[in-house]
Amino acid sequence: MDKRVLIWLIAVIAVVALLLAVTTPAATIHKKVDSAELIRLQGSGVMVVDVRTPSEFASSHIPGALNVPLDQLQQVAVTWSTDRAVAVYCATGARSANAAAYLAGQGFTKVYDLASGIASWTGSVEGGSGQGSGSPAAAAGSVKTDGRPVFIDFASST
Amino acid sequence: MKPLVERLAREYKGKIEFRRYVDSGDPEGDRLSQAFNVQYVPTFVFVNSDGSLSGQPIVGGVDEATLRQRLDLLR
């Protein structure tokens, strides 16, 4: 083969490969995770975002979480790099599902959603109901047990 | 939530002590309600046998799968 033809061929292949690399979107992760998996992801530096209201966040939240209420997510998320891993959660999983879908739609490639929200969270918490005097952790110590674990239902009458 | 909690109480009988406090008047219920700063019902609290808190109290309705998951984590 003519040397010049070969050089042209290599050049064309290089340009096509470059175009494919630029135009092909990165693989997207958008998945629901449980408490254990989120704890593992925290270890790898995921940004944990609590999309509940500030008052809900103040009452208790996952340590290290950033509070960005769902209605403010749009304006705050533009400041984040889309290749950053983000894990969202709310109270029960409804708002965070919307948040996760929004972020994925904006091009975030690693989006995680805590299934069933903070209600399913089994790790430690911070905030008004976290550790310390007057907190549920302190109150739990005052629960008399007969050697078995205790489930307490502060219930309505129905 | 009552039928679900009652069903789970039967299922976990002997393994987990189920307590249900409705309204005020029960001194222990009032004390714990104050200690846990319960503001809404239902609120569910999970306490391990050593008196440590297991996870986060659940405020409001919750699905059966989540409740079971939390009960199964009690030790």
Summarize the SSE layout with pairings:
The complex is a heterodimer of chains A (158) and B (75).
Chain A: H1 3-23, E1 29-33, H2 35-43, E2 47-50, H3 54-59, E3 66-67, H4 73-77, E4 86-89, H5 94-105, E5 110-114, H6 136-140, E6 150-155
Parallel strand pairs in A: 1-5, 2-3, 2-4, 4-5
Chain B: H1 2-11, E1 17-22, H2 27-35, E2 43-47, E3 58-59, H3 64-73
Antiparallel strand pairs in B: 2-3
Summarize the structure.
Chain A is of the alpha/beta class. In chain A, 37% of the residues lie in helices and 16% in strands.
Key words describing this protein structure:
heterodimer; A: 158 residues; alpha/beta; Oxidized Rhodanese, domain 1; five-stranded parallel beta sheet; 6 helices; 6 strands; B: 75 residues; alpha+beta; Glutaredoxin; two-stranded antiparallel sheet; 3 strands; 17% strand; globular
Polypeptide structure, described:
The complex is a heterodimer of chains A (158) and B (75). Chain A is an alpha/beta fold and 158 residues long. Chain A has a domain at 26-124: Oxidized Rhodanese, domain 1 (3-Layer(aba) Sandwich). Helices cover 37% and strands 16% of the residues of chain A. Chain A contains six helices and six strands. Chain A has a five-stranded parallel sheet, with helices on both faces. Chain B is globular and about 30 Å long. In chain B, strands 2-3 form a two-stranded antiparallel ribbon. Chain B has 75 residues and is of the alpha+beta class. The longest helix of chain B has 10 residues, at 2-11. Chain B has helices at 2-11, 27-35, 64-73; strands spanning 17-22, 43-47, 58-59. The A-B interface holds A 35, 60, 91-92, 116, 118-123, 125, 128-129, 134, 136-143, 145-158 and B 1-2, 5, 9, 12, 14-23, 29, 31-33, 35-38, 41-49, 51-60, 62-63, 65-66, 69-71, 73-75.
